[in-house]
Write a structure and sequence with these properties.
Distance between the termini: 27 Å
InterPro entries: HD/PDEase_dom, HD_domain, HDIG_dom, NA-bd_OB-fold, YhaM_exoribonuc/phosphodiest
GO molecular function, one term: hydrolase activity
Number of helices: 11
Keywords: Hydrolase
Order of helices and strands: EEEHEEHHHHHHEEHHHH
Protein name: HD domain-containing protein
Oligomer: single chain
CATH architecture of the largest domain: Orthogonal Bundle
Length: 309
């Protein structure tokens, strides 16, 4: 497993290649291959300095390979110098060994979800969530999809985990602000990222779908939620607008690709809870990955090193 790799040790195993590209050498002709590899224990950046043209054909057609190489430390993180890469017959591929899943069990997430649902009393919102979560397509996808490709909860059941955590955070905030509509804020928290069901595919690694590239999860989320609302007779139009606004504005800032800034208390709370869970996840992951270190390496998405003690 990749998590067991140590500096200077050899590695041999089956890995999923999430991304790859040819990178030109700076001071000589030619190029090397840069590959992001993963199994269920984690990811590693791989470099292949010498490769045959056949490897490029394989990479365009497949994404799971038998790989041999040597792990080495570079700028505080492990890289994998890949020596050989080989095709794997489909019947020998075990996706469970390659795709990471939430460390939180499905049973625990379902129990936590049910606790949240029990707090929602407004009939229309309760009906919306119950119909959505019981739907064979939407409910199953909500419980399986990742929350992201890289930054936070980028694993199976990640969307479920993230949505429940955001709902739990806003539930706590609502205790201190009686003007917040608890039913609306809990519903919005559970559905704010629902468009990620259509934004990502995750059959063989997490990838962005064509719809995800063209529309993004905010617009996809609006389409899903408004489609489900249309099935509920006499759903109040104002309530629909508020819920759609929460999805539309949950990124909070125009520079974060948010079509609107939060203009409801509930939307503002969900925006901050969303950011909080994503950032705290990165602290948690850094502590797990560097248990003996005082500081993490520089984390690009956080734009800083993190203090871990």
């Amino acid at each position: 497993m990749l998590k067991d790799c140590k500096n200077g040790e050899r590695f041999e195993g089956i890995l999923l290649v999430n991304e790859w590209k040819e990178v030109p050498f700076r001071q000589k002709p030619g190029a090397y291959l840069s590959l992001q590899c993963q199994d269920r224990s984690g990811t590693i950046q791989g470099k292949m300095w010498d490769y045959k043209p056949q490897v490029l054909i394989w990479l365009k057609e497949q994404d799971i390979f038998h790989i041999k190489g040597v792990a080495s430390e570079y700028r505080g993180a492990l890289d994998l110098t890949i020596e050989t890469i080989g095709m794997i017959p489909k019947e020998e591929v075990d996706l469970a060994a390659l795709l990471p899943s939430s460390p939180v069990t499905a049973e625990e997430l379902e129990n936590r979800l049910r606790i949240i649902l029990a707090k929602i009393v407004q009939p229309e919102l309760k009906a919306l969530l119950e119909k959505f979560l019981a739907d064979p397509e939407w409910g199953t996808a909500f419980r399986q999809a990742p929350a992201a490709m890289k930054i936070h909860q980028a694993y199976l059941r990640g969307l479920w985990e993230h949505s429940v955590r955001v709902a739990e955070i806003v539930d706590g905030v609502a205790e201190h602000y009686p003007a917040i509509n608890r039913d609306l804020v809990l519903t919005g928290a559970l559905l704010h990222d629902i468009g990620k069901i259509g934004e990502y595919s995750y059959e063989r690694g997490i990838k962005v779908t064509t719809e995800g590239r063209l529309l993004g999860h905010i617009i996809l989320g609006i389409e899903i939620v408004t489609g489900e609302i249309a099935k509920i007779p006499d759903f109040p139009r104002e309530l629909r607008s508020k819920l759609v606004h929460i999805i539309t504005s949950h990124h909070g800032k125009y520079e974060w690709q948010s079509p609107k800034r939060p203009k409801l208390m509930e939307a503002l709370v969900i925006h901050y809870a969303d950011v909080m869970d994503a950032d705290l996840f990165q602290f948690e992951r850094a502590k797990e990955n560097y248990p003996d270190d005082e500081w993490s390496p520089y984390i690009q998405s956080m734009e800083r090193c993190l203090y871990l003690k």
